[in-house]
């Protein structure tokens, strides 16, 4: 508890004790009034003075005003106990609210506690000094010891370690890094000392960007929040005039009918009406739900830019994906050798040798698959045939490695391939030796991810890709994706998304999931842009509304689940608070609910709504 | 230019009132108050002096919510 809260608690306890004591004192008249003023003013002076301050500054209708009028009115009618008790419970409610909000603020703060305190910088002589990460220039060498958080993005220049990334990605599997690997700030070194050359300033590092994003998250307000703001603006004056009408109209009507006016009865009902009407439950719990939802999502490795984005995500019914890097790993691997007229390993080695000097990604995967260090002295006369492949002499034999066109050019009959992927044909001395299939690998969870999306109520899934139609269709079939648009240029992807946007039904939301590196225009065009595998990619964090920290496509459905849960809580609170208030207002106006019921309706609803809001923090079962 | 300030305010409704008040101050293009992180983000008009503007913002906020605080 803060100092302020402790003071409030002391005032509440003291006033409550006084109130109990006074109940046993047999005093009447002016003395009784004077004695009851002690607990009343003790617990309520700040509300009264805020109400006065508000009136002086033209901010009449707020909850201080409601409480001041209701309690002063009750005391004027001689109901000292009620008047004081209303004030007392109102303050208990305020205290609870401030405590609960503070507590969830802290627990979300702890969750996002990835800010490193110091960087250990090594100078030219090899001396270490502890420095504020903000002051470390890019290109400096820092040392990270086991148990410490990496303060700044960089590249490992010495050492091996396993890194825990769970604070960033929600992924519990540690990542192994060694010399030459990039490391991302915010990860915790779990073993081994690392020397890291920083590549960015602290302010540009992943950790700063994430913190910035989360801290500014709720700046963009959701429709539900805007609704509450507008609602409160209309609601409080409406309730005040309603109370005024309740105090004046029925007695006047009764007088006209020749009955006694019963002014004090109706006045008391009007005051009860005021107490019930306090909109705190809504005003507090709705932003709190969003805050907890966004906090819970970031713990699961899903960064949401604001409550507006969280709300939009919950309505996602159409999901469009990029293929490479989103549903597939984006890494090309040798998937097999077909029609081989020689040993498959030997075929692979021959192809890899011929491609030794090529920088093409295909050659890299060939070399990886061939494994081990290749003896480059076996290769000579390497000639790249642009757009076709490579010809070279390996062990004195003429080896040609390339696509169909190369084979046709050399007059070699080749066996075509029916599989998705890139095909590399190999010919030795003009004789066909078979082909090697190089294909992008599906991520292990992609299929499950599409099913999960369908279970989450997504009615249409579309894959947009620049890849060949055959490859794209095969993958779509395998994953169970509804539609495919293949062979698209980046600009055409935007056009396709616009077409999908024009086809969707009202209130539906289209989400686009991409790897964030080359999909920025599409990410910003879709209703909700989801960037994936964004650890370390600045462009993605800029362009997307939702950022998945690791590259697991299952997180898409998880993010939708989290947003649904949060929004469900928001609607529950709106319905519950307005429902209970409306019922109590009616009962109060009819005289069936007294001042005590009114207090419990107000404070009780608020407490329950706040507790419900905090549930949004738990995202384990979304 | 955009700057973020730490604030101290008791309730979400008061935070909303602070935001409304800050948005009416001359020199403020857009102000948003985030009750949950207790931060006020202010985007200033071209050529406005943040220090001067923030003094006026603080005064305007004090008017609607007496015990609010902005760390300038």
Keywords summarizing the entry:
heterodimer, A: 622 residues, alpha+beta, Calcium-transporting ATPase, cytoplasmic transduction domain A, Calcium-transporting ATPase, cytoplasmic domain N, seven-stranded mixed beta sheet, six-stranded antiparallel beta sheet, 20 helices, 51% helix, 18% strand, B: 72 residues, Alpha-Beta Plaits, four-stranded antiparallel beta sheet, 2 helices, globular
Average pLDDT value of chain A?
84
Beta-strand portion of chain A reads 15-25%
Which strand-content bin applies to the residues of chain B?
A: 25-35%
- Find the count of extended strands of chain B (DSSP E, 2+ residues): 4
Topology:
The complex is a heterodimer of chains A (622) and B (72).
Chain A: H1 3-23, H2 29-56, H3 63-76, H4 80-111, E1 119-122, E2 128-131, E3 141-144, E4 154-158, E5 161-164, H5 166-169, E6 175-177, E7 182-183, E8 188-189, E9 194-198, H6 206-215, H7 223-256, H8 263-276, H9 280-299, E10 302-304, H10 307-314, E11 316-322, E12 328-338, H11 344-354, H12 361-370, E13 379-385, E14 389-394, E15 397-402, H13 404-410, E16 422-428, E17 431-442, H14 446-455, E18 460-464, H15 469-479, E19 483-485, H16 490-503, E20 509-514, H17 520-525, E21 528-532, H18 538-543, E22 546-548, H19 554-589, H20 595-614
Parallel strand pairs in A: 11-18, 11-20, 18-19, 20-21, 21-22
Antiparallel strand pairs in A: 1-2, 1-3, 3-9, 4-7, 4-9, 5-6, 5-8, 10-22, 12-17, 13-14, 14-15, 15-16, 16-17
Chain B: E1 2-8, H1 12-23, E2 28-34, E3 39-44, H2 50-64, E4 69-71
Antiparallel strand pairs in B: 1-3, 1-4, 2-3
Please give a structural write-up.
The complex is a heterodimer of chains A (622) and B (72). Chain A has 622 residues and is an alpha+beta fold. Among the domains of chain A are: 119-148 and 152-204, Distorted Sandwich (Calcium-transporting ATPase, cytoplasmic transduction domain A); 330-442, Calcium-transporting ATPase, cytoplasmic domain N (3-Layer(aba) Sandwich), CATH 3.40.1110.10. In chain A, the strands form 4 sheets. A 7-stranded mixed β-sheet of chain A has the order 10-22-21-20-11-18-19, sandwiched between helices. In chain A, strand 13 (379-385) and strand 14 (389-394) form a beta hairpin. The model of chain A has no long low-confidence stretch (mean pLDDT 84). Helix content of chain A is 51%, strand content 18%. The longest helix of chain A is centred in the C-terminal third of the chain and has 36 residues, at 554-589. Chain A is elongated. Chain A is built from 20 helices and 22 strands. The two termini of chain A are 32 Å apart. In chain A, helix 3 packs antiparallel against helix 8 (263-276), helix 8 (263-276) packs parallel to helix 20 and helix 9 (280-299) runs antiparallel to helix 19. Chain B has a 4-stranded antiparallel β-sheet. The longest helix of chain B has 15 residues, at 50-64. Chain B has helices at 12-23, 50-64, and strands at 2-8, 28-34, 39-44, 69-71. Chain B is globular, with a radius of gyration of 11 Å. Chain B contains 2 helices and 4 strands. Chain B has one domain: 2-Layer Sandwich (Alpha-Beta Plaits), CATH 3.30.70. Chain B is of the alpha+beta class. The mean pLDDT of chain B is 84. Classes of the chains: A alpha+beta (622), B alpha+beta (72). At the A-B interface, helix 2, helix 4 and helix 9 of A face helix 1 of B.
């Amino acid at each position: 508890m803060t100092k302020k809260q402790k003071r409030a608690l002391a005032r509440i306890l003291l006033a409550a004790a006084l109130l109990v004591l006074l109940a046993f004192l047999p005093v009447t008249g002016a003395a009784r009034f004077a004695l009851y003023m002690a607990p009343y003013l003790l617990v309520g002076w700040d509300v009264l003075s805020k109400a006065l301050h508000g009136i002086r500054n033209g901010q009449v209708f707020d909850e201080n005003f409601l409480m001041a009028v209701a309690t002063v009115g009750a005391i004027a009618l001689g109901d000292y106990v009620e008047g004081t008790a209303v004030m007392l419970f109102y303050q208990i409610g305020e205290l609870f609210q401030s405590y609960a909000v503070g507590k969830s603020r802290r627990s979300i703060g702890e969750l996002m506690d990835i800010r490193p305190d110091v960087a250990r910088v090594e100078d030219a002589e090899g001396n270490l000094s502890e420095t504020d990460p903000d002051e470390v220039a890019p290109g400096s060498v820092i040392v990270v010891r086991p148990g410490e958080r990496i303060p700044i993005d960089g590249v490992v220049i010495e050492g091996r370690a396993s890194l825990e990334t769970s604070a960033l990605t929600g992924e519990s599997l540690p990542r192994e890094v060694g010399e030459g690997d990039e490391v991302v700030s915010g990860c915790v070194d779990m073993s081994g000392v690392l020397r890291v050359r920083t590549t960015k300033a602290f302010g540009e590092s992943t950790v700063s960007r994430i913190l910035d994003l989360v801290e500014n998250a709720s700046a963009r307000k959701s429709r539900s929040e805007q609704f509450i703001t507008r609602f409160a603006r209309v609601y409080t004056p409406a309730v005040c005039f309603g109370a005024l009408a309740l105090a004046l109209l029925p007695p006047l009507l009764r007088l006209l009918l020749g009955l006694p006016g019963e002014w004090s009865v109706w006045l008391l009902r009007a005051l009860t009406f005021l107490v019930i009407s306090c909109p705190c439950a809504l005003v507090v719990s709705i932003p709190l739900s969003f805050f907890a939802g966004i906090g819970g999502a970031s713990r699961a490795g899903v960064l949401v830019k604001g409550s507006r984005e969280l709300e939009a995500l919950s309505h996602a019914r159409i999901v469009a994906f990029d293929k490479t890097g989103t549903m597939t790993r984006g890494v090309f691997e040798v998937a097999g050798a077909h029609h081989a007229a020689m040993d498959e390993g030997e075929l692979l080695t021959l192809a890899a040798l011929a491609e030794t000097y090529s920088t093409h990604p295909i050659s890299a995967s060939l070399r990886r698959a061939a494994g081990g260090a290749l003896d480059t002295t076996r290769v000579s006369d390497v000639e790249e045939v642009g757009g076709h492949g490579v010809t070279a002499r390996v062990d004195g034999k003429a080896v040609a490695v390339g696509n169909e066109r190369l084979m046709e050019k050399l007059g070699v009959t080749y066996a075509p391939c029916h599989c998705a992927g890139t095909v590399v044909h190999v010919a030795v001395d003009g004789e066909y030796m078979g082909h090697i299939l190089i294909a992008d690998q599906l991520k292990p969870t992609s299929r499950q991810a599409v099913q999960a999306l369908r279970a989450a109520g997504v009615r249409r899934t579309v894959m947009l890709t620049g890849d060949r139609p055959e490859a794209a269709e095969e993958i779509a079939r395998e994953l169970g994706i509804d539609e495919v648009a293949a062979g698209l240029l980046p600009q055409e992807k935007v056009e396709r998304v616009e077409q999908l946007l024009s086809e969707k039904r009202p209130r539906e939301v289209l989400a686009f999931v991409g790897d964030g590196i080359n999909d920025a225009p599409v990410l910003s065009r879709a209703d909700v842009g989801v960037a994936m595998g964004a650890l370390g990619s600045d462009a993605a964090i800029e362009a997307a509304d939702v950022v998945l920290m690791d590259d697991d496509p299952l997180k898409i459905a998880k993010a939708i689940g989290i947003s649904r849960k949060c929004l469900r809580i928001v609607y529950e609170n709106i319905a519950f608070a307005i429902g209970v208030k409306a019922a109590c207002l009616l009962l109060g106006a009819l005289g069936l609910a007294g001042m005590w019921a009114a207090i419990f309706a107000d404070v009780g609803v608020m407490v329950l709504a706040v507790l419900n809001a905090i549930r949004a923090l738990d995202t384990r079962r979304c | 230019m955009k700057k973020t300030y730490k604030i101290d305010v008791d309730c979400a409704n008061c935070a909303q009132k602070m935001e409304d008040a800050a948005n009416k101050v001359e020199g403020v293009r857009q102000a948003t108050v985030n009750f949950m992180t207790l931060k006020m983000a202010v985007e200033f008009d071209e050529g406005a002096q943040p220090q001067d503007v923030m003094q006026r913002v603080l005064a305007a906020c004090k008017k609607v919510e007496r015990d609010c605080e902005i760390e300038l």
